[in-house]
Specification:
By secondary structure, the protein is an all-alpha fold. Helices cover 65% and strands 0% of the residues. The protein folds into two domains: 78 residues, no CATH class; 59 residues, no CATH class.
């Protein structure tokens, strides 16, 4: 909290980094944190890091965010996609991508709606997925007969 962020903050990039590096060791993460703090406190060290070519940084970012997408797809497909689940995922992803690709769709919305959903499609996708999960009727499970047991 002393450095401007709450201690329970989590970033989705962490999922991609763990997937790419296979490193979940606390000491390695602490070394990375110390290095970032030193980069912020020592401008010369930060300048050395900033001379990294944009193509290298871009390639690493593409790989990291692709890993996040694949992790999300694995999470979604752990259970069979029923028509209900497929509808929830499809509408949420479509809306999230649509707002993210064209934020102008919210131009006519009230300012509060634009403020909440205008930054990216993630908030809208999450809100729609939660609402649809509550509103759409659950799939009926087939009862087991005594012969099946």
């Amino acid at each position: 909290a002393l450095f401007g962020v709450l201690p329970n903050t989590s970033f989705s990039q962490n999922v991609g980094l763990v997937t790419m590096t296979k490193m979940v060791n606390r000491k390695a993460l602490a070394c990375g944190a110390v290095f970032l703090i030193l980069c912020g406190l020592c401008p010369k060290l930060g300048a050395v890091v900033s001379i990294m070519p944009q193509s290298v940084l871009g390639g690493a970012a593409v790989m990291m965010f692709a890993s996040i997408v694949v992790s999300g797809i694995q999470l979604i497909t752990r259970e069979p996609l029923t028509p209900r689940n497929l509808s929830i995922v499809s509408v949420a992803l479509g809306l999230g991508y649509g707002i993210g690709a064209n934020p102008a769709v919210l131009a006519g919305a009230p300012q509060m709606v634009s403020l909440i959903f205008g930054g990216s499609g993630i908030v809208a996708a999450a809100a729609v997925a939660i609402v649809l999960n509550i509103v759409l009727p659950k799939d009926k499970e087939t009862p087991q007969s005594e012969a099946d047991v």
